[in-house]
């Protein structure tokens, strides 16, 4: 019984590793899915938000969240920020 569970666990881990490998080989990991938040229209009042003229704050083009100037990705929706 112990060997059977061990073999089952090894096969499960191997199947998960294979699934991850295939996902990595797809090459589309950085593209948003069709159900992603990034397809939503950006808020209309981005320019009017408080702190928008602050050089230490960077607004997300997708969700409008305020991020530090050195962030590359939004802390809220994880979309890429403007350089």
UniProtKB/TrEMBL annotation:
InterPro entries: DUF7577. Pfam families: DUF7577 (PF24463). Residues 28-55 are annotated as: Disordered. Residues 58-82 form the DUF7577 domain. This is Zinc ribbon domain-containing protein.
């Amino acid at each position: 019984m112990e060997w059977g569970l061990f073999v089952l666990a090894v096969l499960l881990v191997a199947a998960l590793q294979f699934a991850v490998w295939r996902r990595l080989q797809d090459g589309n990991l950085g593209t948003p899915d069709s159900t992603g938040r990034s397809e939503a229209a950006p808020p209309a009042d981005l320019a009017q938000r408080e702190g928008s003229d602050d050089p230490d704050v960077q607004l997300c083009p997708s969700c409008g969240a305020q991020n530090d100037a050195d962030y590359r990705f939004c802390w809220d929706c994880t979309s890429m920020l403007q350089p």
